[in-house]
Amino acid sequence: MNALGLSAWRLLADQSRPHWRLIAAGGALNLLGTAAALAQPLIAKQVIDSIGSGQVSAGPVLALAGLLLFSALAAGCGTYLLERVAAAVVRLARGRLITRIMRLRVDAVDRPGDLISRVTSDTTLLSSAASQAIVEPLGAALMLVGGIVLMAVLDLSLLGITVGILAAILAVTGLAMPRIARAQTGVQRSVGEITEALERALGAFRTVKASGMENAEIDRLETATRKAWEHSTGAAKWSALARVSSGLAIQVAFLVVLGAGAARVASGDLAVSSLVAFLLYLFNVGQPIATLVRSATEMQLGLTAVHRMREVAELPVEPEEQPGPAAEEPLYPQATAAFHQVSFGYGDRPVLREVSFTAAAGEVTAIVGESGTGKTTLFSLLERFYEPSSGLITLDGGDVRQWPLAELRRQIGYVEQDAPVLSGTLRENLCYAAPSVSAEELAEVLARTRLTEFVESLPDGLDTWIGHRGTTLSGGQRQRIAIARALLRRPRILLMDEATSQLDAANELALRQTMAALTRTTTVIMIAHRLSTVVDAHHIVVLEGGRVRTGGTHQDLLAKDGFYRELVGSQLVAS
Fold first, then answer.
1. Where are the transmembrane segments (predicted)?
2. What is 192-247 written as a DSSP string?
């Protein structure tokens, strides 16, 4: 077995271990059912012998009927228990996968559509793998081994013929298995590409429509769909070959054994009843062989899914929380954030170079610079979405790496550049990070962000459904909702990434007044592209080429720095 298969089997075994009692009970019932089924041909032999001797008895017939009923009941109950285990394995695996994905580092989630496919499509296939690994093979293997042993008791020469024919034809099945696995890996990869392409198109649906690019996105999806079809066709071809081979093996073995057995009966070397019993065992053996072949082919699908799920476990996650100074009650409501010689890059591309500045407690610090100079990256580093390649970032003088992540992020409110909203009601979005906020606090923040009138205009108020990604909202409304959501957390430090870019003049003026009042309890760091949002800042940091060029107030920078004057004249829009 290759490394992929071994890894997948280990994962299945790990997921199944908590259910060993159910597995043992189900296995025992299957064993009893199989034993009853194996006894049936021997009872049938006795019935035939009694008919031949003219001494017909009801005992063997009743015993045969009882064995049939007991075998069905035991096997049915055993299969039910094992199917429950299979369902529990899938539930556990899906839960672990979701938990793992939600704890991934931000830079690991570069293909969300593929991750969605692993949670939905791959875990569904895991159900087949768990069922085929736990339920089907156990009973089939018991029937196969028991049948062969009893066939040996009846006639060794006929058993030799049977094993030879089965081995020769079933060798083809063994050749097909790795090809099925390779084809199914391609299928699952293509399904991930389909999900990713669909997520891309639906995530920017208005852009697709407005750009007239529906056909281009359809072509992209059809390409992924065609690849999935090609791989599925390959898997189906080899699966069909494997299953036909198993059926052919039984049929050929039956014909050869029937001919050879008839000759032995004619010569007096074998009783008719023994030949009948042997043929019954041959069919009994044929069924588990077909079951094992079917299980093996379907296992290739499931093990491929297990392998793809295991790949998620190898993606980098955020560090485990460790006790640190953040557990202490802060001395001041506002926080002081500082960057000390911080450098960072995406892969081989440097973005920040020895950046140093301090955002003092209770002040508004603005960060300005040309596009691509690393302004948003500074926020990502402070939130610890990424780790700097060198340098130190502190909050209240303590290294942010020593803070438990949850505690660190509890200090921070983050308003992202694109102001994302979640599918749900307006209330759910506003209270997302503060579910226990009071009605009075919510009303206060709505007033401060000029959302009160908007909420009152909605048909269901705060309980109005705002649609997938806020498609029913304007850009300015999304930004105000994002700002309100951050304020409801009552953060000690508020990060605003161009959070006023889509606000009109009246709403922006109101927000500037809110920011001025907010500094009594919160430190504000904002990335700005409008002059009107930076002129009132206590301190402005000017980035150029990933470095801090200079810093100061708006008037100081106008007087001393030509680059800042250029930004004011070209990139910052005059108020």
1. 20-43, 63-82, 133-152, 158-177, 247-266, 272-293
2. HHHHHHHHHHHHTHHHHHHTT-HHHHHHHHHHHHHHHHHHHHHHHHHHHHHHHHHH
Give the tens place of pLDDT for each residue, 394-428: 999 999 999 888 889 889 999 988 788 887 889 98
- Distance, in Å, from the CA atom of 478 to the CA atom of 470, rounded to the nearest integer, reads 7
- CA angle at 232 for the pair 226 and 234, rounded to the nearest 5°: 110
Q: For residues 388 and 66, give the distance between their C-alpha atoms in angstroms, rounded to a whole number.
A: 74
What pairs with residue 104 in β-bridges? 317
Residues 357 and 460 in one domain: yes
Q: What CATH number does residue 151 fall under?
A: 1.20.1560.10
Do residues 327 and 407 touch, judged by C-beta distance below 8 A?
Answer: yes
**136 assigned to active site:** no
In this structure, the answer to whether residues 81 and 148 fall within a common structural domain is yes
Asked whether residue 319 is domain-assigned, the answer is no
Dihedral, CA of residue 447, residue 448, residue 453 and residue 456, to nearest 10: -50
Is residue 472 a part of any domain in this protein? yes
Same domain membership, residue 102 and residue 21: yes
Report yes or no: 309 and 118 within 8 Å, Cβ to Cβ: yes
Domain CATH for 429: 3.40.50.300
Same domain, 310 and 348: no
Q: In which domain, by residue range, is 363 found?
A: 337-574
530 token code pair: 């409008």
Residue 233, both tokens: 């066709």
Residues 280 and 360 in one domain: no
Find the mean pLDDT for residues 385-401: 93
- 527 three-state secondary structure: strand
Token couple for 462: 């705060």
pLDDT one-digit tens code per residue, 292-334: 777 776 676 677 777 777 778 788 888 765 544 444 455 457 8
Q: Find the helix or strand (DSSP H, E) in which 538 lies.
A: none
Does residue 325 fall inside a structural domain? no
For residues 501 and 463, the model is more confident at 463
User: Which of 498, 508, 544, 566 is an active site residue?
Assistant: 498
3-class secondary structure, 418: coil
Would you say 114 and 191 are in contact if contact means Cβ atoms under 8 Å apart?
Answer: no
Mind listing the pLDDT tens digit for each residue in 97-133? Answer: 888 888 888 877 767 777 777 777 777 777 666 666 6
User: How many domains, the chain?
Assistant: 2
pTM of the model: 0.69
Domain-located, residue 166: yes
CA distance 349 to 145: 62
Same structural domain, 438 and 310: no
243 and 356 both lie in a single domain: no
The helix/strand/coil state of 449 is coil
In sequence order, what are the beta bridge partners of 523? 493
Based on the domain organization, do 411 and 455 belong to the same domain?
Answer: yes
Confidence category of residue 549, pLDDT binned at 50, 70, 90: very high
